[in-house]
Amino acid sequence: MSTLSPLAVSFVTHFGEMGSRWGINRTVGQIYALIYLSPRPIHADDMAETLGFSRSNVSMGLKELQAWRLVRLRHLPGDRREYFEPSGDAWDTFRRLAEERRRREIEPTLSMLRDALLQEPSGPDDAHAQARMREMHDLIEQLMSWFDEVSRMDVQTLSKLMKMGAQVGKLLEFTGRRGKRPADDAGRDNRDNGTEG
Q1: Are 34 and 50 a contacting pair, CB within 8 Å?
Q2: Which residues pair with 85 in a beta bridge?
Q3: Which one of 46, 66, 87 terminates a domain?
Q4: Model pTM greater than 0.70?
Q5: What is the pLDDT of residue 111?
Q6: Structural domains of the chain, count
Q7: Which residues of the chain are under the pLDDT cut of 50?
């Protein structure tokens, strides 16, 4: 990575290390990081030279990144080589990684849980196990519904929602208190005024 600045080297190296935790290997993570940082579309030969990878490793990495829909192919006028650029901004990258992890990891788990819940329990232990599986199934279903809703939001709305952070929790607590029965509020008012009998 001799042609990269120390700042870029740091990012590319770290992204390679993190890639394995997100479900892509180190080489693919570094290739993506290089493409993401590049101010212009970059071709595979430049990637191989910059990262010190073989051309075949770069080609395999690019195929994987295309399968994840993280990069797109570009052709430049007068140049027969294939160039690559990121498919979108940081939000798009996060969404695509999350969608792919869902498809590869979460959906098979949900499918297994659905199958297990359709079976007739053979005894109390199986009934207990199914009850725990139902809790997990329902939680994952809720999270996936939430993810679907969030995925449909535009970037500006999603950014505002994330910046609200803990304020969302406070709003939910407030609306929860507002939803209490009038008798509960009256009892609290009497206690606050010292008139409770």
Answers
A1: yes
A2: 72
A3: 87
A4: no
A5: 93
A6: 2
A7: 1, 197
